[in-house]
């Protein structure tokens, strides 16, 4: 963090920093003491060790989770992992220890004392974002002391100011306000300017994350999609896949991706590969013990590279089809962000398969979203701040000549998932119908 702050402030007038907010991966937690010192290792956002605990959490809180629209929790969510920690280390229940999300720890280090968490990070820890409370009856059934749970505030709420000690180490002026942040997915959504109803942001990094804006709570009995509270009485539905650009790094690490891209662009579209990097999928379906597969011939590096790029595009399209099936508004502006957008061929491939125009903002990292959020200290709304600070870099439109070919590959991809029993029949049918329109 110290190095990142120094890099960010290099060449800038530190006195111009008017406020800051922290984003972090959703569901990454640890247990800390009252001084903010970690008492456990961090359990990461994609750690799915808590499968049995997720079942217990679902049983204990079923009515609450149903009310909140996601009906059940995934093993990688924060609450199942908290229960796992307490079952394996019951001594953590004693004393004045507390649940700490990743962004809570960083904000506390900046301010000098433990801080409240924000509603977006608290969601996967079991916070009721409708009634704005920790459902104590659920935590009692799970044996989780409610004293371990942090206070919860809305994103943008002032948590404190940068301490003199933190200022001396980071270069951020002492007294700079620190406001409650958001999860990285929500932060990226703000950074992309996807803040109006019907708008969506697709973040392609190591994994694929989709976040949108709805006027109503989107309910998903399968527990795949969940909703954060958004600004101006909106909801922010979304979910994260375990598929994404991570498979490219794993499969082609050390190789010249520019050369592979140029050769793939000159080759006809052939195979499609499921681009999974783990044995668990989270979106557009939840399944364990899944395996990557290839449809078609991908015998050399170029063919496999192209097949994986197309596979990610297919996962993205299926995510959009699934959201449409749930009744989420998907007809608004669509932006694409994340490291994957640096590959123009890949971005165009995704646009051609989705079949709609897409904007790629010039700078849409989650950090930009946190700058947008922190700027609300000046009195403007999040929507106003995003409009003022987010600029489009390029507009991509679908190539109508390539769409039909890609849709045929997409249908094959959907059939392969359904045949393996991973994709629900209703989802597969809806995806087929939309592809045939």
TrEMBL record:
Key word Transferase present in the record? Answer: yes
**Family the UniProt entry places it in:** Belongs to the FGGY kinase family.
Top-level taxon of origin: Bacteria
Q: Which SUPFAM superfamilies match?
A: Actin-like ATPase domain
Say if the entry is tagged with keyword Nucleotidyltransferase. Answer: no
Q: Which UniProt keywords are present, listed alphabetically?
A: Carbohydrate metabolism, Kinase, Transferase, Xylose metabolism
Q: Which InterPro entries match?
A: ATPase_NBD, Carb_kinase_FGGY, FGGY_C, FGGY_Carb_Kinase, FGGY_N
Q: Name one GO biological process term.
A: D-xylose metabolic process
What name does the UniProt record give this protein? Carbohydrate kinase
* Pfam families linked: FGGY_C, FGGY_N
Q: Which residues form the Carbohydrate kinase FGGY N-terminal domain?
A: 11-191
Q: Where is the Carbohydrate kinase FGGY C-terminal domain?
A: 254-375
For this UniProt entry, the molecular function terms from Gene Ontology, in alphabetical order, are: kinase activity
